[in-house]
Amino acid sequence: MPASLRAPRALRLLPALLLPTVLLSGLLAGCSDLTGTGDLDYVPGNGGVVEFAQEDRQPPVELSGETTTGEDYTFSPGTVTVVNVWWSGCGPCIKEMPMLTELAAAYDGDVDFLGINIRDTSAANARSFERDRGVEYPSIYAPDGDALLAFTGRTSPRSTPTTLVLDEDGVVVSLVNGEIPSRTTLTDLVEDAGGPPAPAPVPSAPDEEVADG
């Protein structure tokens, strides 16, 4: 028997029925046809959070592609997974990347993280961005937008960034349309999806050692 769902956090969550409205309002605010993403339009999201009720959830995601390091990737259910749609020229993507990187390290394998890069001009450029920011989890390089077809008919990301949380069965249970409002927002969504409680923050390493005297 599936576990009962928690009551929605009204102050930060939008009902799933509002998802089309959220996406439409973002598109009307200023669509931009991104080079290399075919007919899909992407605009900055507004940070709206949506959790899907059990009866509104779609079948498990089937996702595969080539990563920014040139390796083949196929999504395998079994662990709660955070999927982040991004590219290196997206301001909100850049702003939230340190939090995603820190959380990926803090969960220490108890939660999987995956990026989908949808616009960088080359995989090498995307990978250079990841190296500069210490991103160690994989990202599928999909400038043609093909990787996003895995979400067609369920959550179809149409803004950058978009972050989706998948449960252990690979089912999308929630998303953030736009920049993630806070670390707590994401850790709550992970826990609601069946993942572990929020981990303690990973301490930042000092930029340099200051010599005595």
Automatic annotation (TrEMBL):
SUPFAM superfamilies: Thioredoxin-like
Main location (coarse class): other
Keywords recorded for this protein, A-Z: Cytochrome c-type biogenesis, Disulfide bond, Isomerase, Redox-active center, Signal-anchor, Transmembrane
Any single GO CC term annotated in Swiss-Prot or TrEMBL for this entry: cell envelope
One GO BP: cytochrome complex assembly
Keyword presence, Transmembrane: yes
Pfam families: Redoxin
UniProt cross-references to InterPro entries, sorted A to Z: Redoxin, Thioredoxin-like_sf, Thioredoxin_domain, Thioredoxin_ResA/DsbE_sf
Region of interest called Disordered, as start-end residue ranges on this chain: 190-213
Domain Thioredoxin: 52-195
Annotated localization: Cell envelope
GO molecular function ontology, one term from the record: isomerase activity
PANTHER family for the chain: THIOL:DISULFIDE INTERCHANGE PROTEIN DSBE (PTHR42852)
Protein name: Thiol-disulfide isomerase/thioredoxin
Species this protein is from: Nocardioides marinus
Phylogenetic placement of the source organism: Bacteria, Bacillati, Actinomycetota, Actinomycetes, Propionibacteriales
